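Predict fold of DNA helicase RecQ; 517 aa.
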Amino acid sequence: MLQKANDLLKTYFGYPAFREGQESAISAVLERKNTLCVMPTGGGKSVCYQIPALMLPGTTVVISPLISLMKDQVDSLVQLGIDATYINSSLTNQEASERMEDAAAGRYKLLYIAPERLESPYFTGQLGKMDIPLIAVDEAHCISQWGHDFRPSYRHITKMVDGLAGEPVMLALTATATPMVREDICSSLGIRKDHEVITGFERKNLSFSVVKGQDRGKYLKNFLKQNKSETGIIYAATRKTVDQLYENLKKGGLSVSRYHAGMSDADRYSEQDRFLRDESAVMVATSAFGMGIDKSNIRYVIHYQLPRNMESYYQEAGRAGRDGLPSSCTVLYSPQDIQVQRFLIEQSIEPNRAAAELEKLQGMADYCHTESCLQETILRYFGETETEPCGRCGNCTDTRESEDVTKEAQMVLSCIIRMGQRFGKAITAQVLTGSQNKKILEFGFDKLSTYGIMENWSAKDAGSLIEFLISEDMIGVEHGTFPTIYVAAKGKEVLKGLRQVHRKAAVRSAEISTKDP
Ligand code: ADP
Ligand code: ZN
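Predicted 3D structure, encoded as tokens:
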């Protein structure tokens, strides 16, 4: 059977060999095992259901939330000589029911549908008449509350499957590998824990870096000047920033496109199209852009502002270098981004889920403050345990000597304890540096022995040391009405003198600025 799959890969798709994971996923499906396939963006998930679809009798149904992608996918399948179609809200009712009747008559090998369709009884009724050997659930993390892109209509999938005559194999596909999301997908779709195909998430051609403490406008300008001939994406957190950046870059003479949910469908489509056709070199966008985009020559992805969590970050950054050539992924970090993202989360998410989201945001902040390998930090976040420093990222290539900051860390940790472990980062930094802030006097923190113990530091530098200790798991964060910090197990060891703390960025900004001309 796998020989047949191999032949199809060559004859239909023109690829010489399977990539990691594709073969296991395909053979699991052919053995009629419900399967979860976790591969990084660009890993080649589509082939995992397209090849079985060609081998199995009947029509494979592909559920996908990506309306813009469906048409492209179907067009390229049709070009390959494969009978495929899609049904989504871009069609008129008339067109949709015509296609559905054709599908019910068995005209297609692949039928792509948007999950919203599953809410229509007419539609599920038609599906009930069909011979469906396989249901592929693309972007399967959308089924999970814990995913970064929960879609309630994904919850209708199981009901639809129950209404079918036969018993199709379920193949769920996603690039999100966090254990909670995986568990949620498996239990919703009836996938056994040992039926997961997970490929390594390392992207060996990507080099990650975090740029801190620089004017990001200037950084970006310089970067674009040096990479004029390259194609890249710049992600910003809000529509407003996208528009501003777009105008600025355009004024600077760059060929640039933009994309966000506030634009009309037609504008978004034409902007995206220009970028995909290499008519513009730079795409400035919110995270609304890019799901399902298959552009192989993206040389860099810059996050102008902090992304809201590691899941979205890795997915967005992962759009760089799909062709396997060296590419860069950079986050331009500024502490106030945390506030922006906090605000966006608190505005858009029901309170009972906000705490989980804020915790994920903290994961993103930790990424920006760690001095460990960035690729490793990402892989660990996604549950990989056997990792090694990549040797390519901004931290691996940082040649500064690290300094012993154990004493300073102890000052911070003991101050947190003296303050009762129920206050935030900012006020702790102020106590350490001896601020006269009214709140500090009201709480009587000026009477603590740790008050002003770091008075030759700026509150900003003390704050960044706290962030660093958080990223090292020495300080923990609790996300209540507002975030509070406490001394974690590793921090207790530091206090007892059982563990030392080393930091490369020990040079403080006050020292840097006096040295500047
Ligand atoms: P994903 O859905 O995982 O993000 P896709 O299925 O869109 O990824 O595939 C990403 C790219 O890799 C596409 O350009 C696809 O044509 C290519 N691809 C997929 N499988 C193979 C393979 N076995 N060999 C070479 N290229 C492949
Ligand atoms: Zn590294």
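Residues 231 and 317 are 14 Å apart (CA to CA).
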